[in-house]
Amino acid sequence: MIETPPALAATAGGSLLVLAILAPVAGILLSFALGGRFAERVALGLTPIGLAIAFAIAALVWRSGAPLVYNVAGLPPPLGIALRADGISCVMLAAAALVIAAAAFYARANFATPKGVMEARAPLAFWILVQAVWAALTILFVGGDLFNLYVALELLTFAAVPLVCLSGKPETLVAALRYLMFALFGSVFYLLGAALLYGAYGTLDIVLLAERMRALPAVWLAAGLMTAGLLAKTALFPLHLWLPPAHANAPAAASAVLSGLVVKGSFFLTVRLWFYVLPALPGGAAEAVLGTLGSAAVLFGSVLALRQERLKLLIAYSTLAQIGYLFLIFPLASGAHPWVADGWSGGIMQTLSHAFAKAAMFMSAGLLAESLGHDRIAEFAGAGRAMPATFFALGLGGLSLMGLPPSGGFAAKWLLLRASVAAGQWSWAIVMLAGGLLAAGYVYRILAPALSAGAIVLEAPPQRSREAIALALAIVAAALGFAPQSFFDFLEVGRAAATALR
Amino acid sequence: MSASTLAGLVGAALVGLGLYGFIVSPQPLRKILAFNLIGNGAFLVFGIVARKGAAAGFPFDPVPQAMVITGIVVAFAASALAAALILRLQEETGNVLLDSDAPAKPPGDEAGAS
Amino acid sequence: MSILQVLDLGLAILVLAIAGWTIAARELFASVVGYVAYGLLLSIVWIRLHAPDVALTEAAIGSGVTGVLLVTTGARLRGAGGVETAAPPRLSQRLMAGALAVLVAAALAAVVLLLPEPAPTLAPEAREGLAATGLGNPVTAVLIAYRSFDTMLEKVVLVLAVVGVWSLAPDRCWAGAPAPLGRARPEGALLFLDQALVPLGILVGVHLFWVGADEPGGAFQAGAILAAMWMIVMISRLTEPPRVGARWLRLALIAGPAVFLATGLAGGGMAGGFFAYPAGFAKPIILFIEAFLVLSIAVTLPMLVAGPPRRSPQS
Q: Residue B33: which of A151, C243, C30, A460 has the closest Cα?
């Protein structure tokens, strides 16, 4: 038996990583077998367990300051599959657990099995699919093997696409089909790239690949194919066409999960690819291309968001813009410069704050649509007085989108701005400032009519508990703005080794 | 030219053919056919990688072959989901073309969001 | 050039020609039929690549079951009001797509030819671990032992696909049965096929499962063959797709992944690691898991082909 090198050795507590994945997987199987009301009970019962595991993993990594590693089947890579949780895995696991738990409790009002029937279609599907999203994201955040991550990407697709068309309305079916097409294109291109990497290095383990990585033609082609596939799944401009109809037409709880978390799954994998697998490639050009596409997305998405008549579509277009900011991490956090720490912190903070802010906003939009019977912004007059908590959550989430303090969005954009100024890459800074102004414009467009005087009759007042859930998420997004330096140090755990390779 | 090199070239050509069909076909079921062609191309790349990795008395490296088997099953599941979606869409709208940007909306659907 | 090389070249050209036909054919149905033939030829390519396990999977699932799915879908689309012929895309769009396709294919071909020699491989590691699993077929060992985590998750993907497909049912049909796969009562030829082929197919399926531990075959291929037999019986209307609310169906669908997951969890306590097998007991445990995988695959594939429930549970 060959001695396992230290970089590949399992760590104490690593089994938590397997449990974090298996808990929602077991939930899927149990919900499907028992059916009916049990699906909801299993999913809701799982949320505290999942939260506890996610925070336990984060606590272990925080305390040791080193990644948590587990080799499945006791078999280290290259033959076996490794799971690894570093700083960014931990914060994403925690964010996913919180947003999914919130969405699940929020969704109870929409997806309860009606009285008098054993089982109904939409509730059964929703409760299973939401657990599947959780399982898939968990693997994406801790997976250490690119093929295992491919299976997770597929799991995510199969969970996310049916969520879009749960209502069965024709426009949701068109949106879901278009989403599926983009997602399938993305998967198969990712797989093609993985095949080339295996052909070049005989492994798909991220740590082993990084050690062996050289700038071969196969590697460049693999990087291009995989990135193209992941961008289609993340809906980065110009592969964004599917996102607005899909996210705007899904049920509100599903939109919150899709916009807040699901697109982050493929983004996270793009980060893994460029910062952990490929850091040895001579950098610059690819990162600049990703940053440029992100900038285009910021401007394009914001301008389109400004022009929307319906609230949910506006929020969906704003997701396009906010995804754009994420991709500034590539030019601003790669290489061995003094400013890359700011770029890295800013990019990850943007991922987190957008997850909470956008989930809160979609949930609030869902409450509005249910109470008003529509979501046409022009007819919101007086709604702010009738539903103050809902609009407060919308406004608080809006702060993160604009990048105004106090919010995680402010911290994120401030750090990215500082990095781009320090790097002398002024174009990103200009894009960020323009994006902030445009975001202020579209958030104002939502709030201004709502705060104006007007008589409005609610079809039904919103449930206090559901307003509280949306507000709680918005408060988390705002509170991220007060993250201390130790939080940003935590994001660097496990990254030092990768950057040292340069 | 060896059988495996030839298979690699077939794989590359299948990816090209599939990509072309995937982009230009307005009929979603044909897009699914094209998607399967691209998938087969990717599997063949794994296949020649496996064949070139013959060692230790095996005429192939079993790891990429196992990945292909997993991939074939997943591709089938994707095709099945897409097929069900296409059929339901046709039933609702009588139209399954993805190109029209404004899908037929049934009358009386005003609220839209829920 | 040897005869084998000429045959290889001919095979390659034929595969690409039929693949091109499936893209170019005007009739949707014609291209679907072309795809089935293409899939069968492709499995010969896999044999030539010394990949009998993949060839079996490609023939059974990639060509066979996918073929039935596409033919059924094509027929249902036609039956539900005809497949309208869309206006062909603009020339500029076709040219751009063509250029992109040629670029990707050319880059891929070049890179594939340039892959390093000698190729990196995990074959020695796979051989070294084989003894501990008690298996003779290294591909089965990768699927059920070394990378069993992938395989378990892929089975969950199949369950999710079923949930996704069923979620597309009209609400009034929930818990009912999918539409029948065949149209009318069977004719003589089909009945003969049932009587002659189905028992044989079941035998082949069971055989593939049993030998899969040491020779080409295994849970995937065996499950797919059994699935095909069930589909033949359903197409000839000797039996109908079951109601999606049926308890036995749910249990059969999740049995494979559930047993896989449970043994994987138990490994954490008994074999020193999740998804590890206790020394000396690997092979019986693997066969136990595979038996349930065969069952689940045999039930899942036909249900995915049959589609969402279309008949209300009362009827």
A: C30
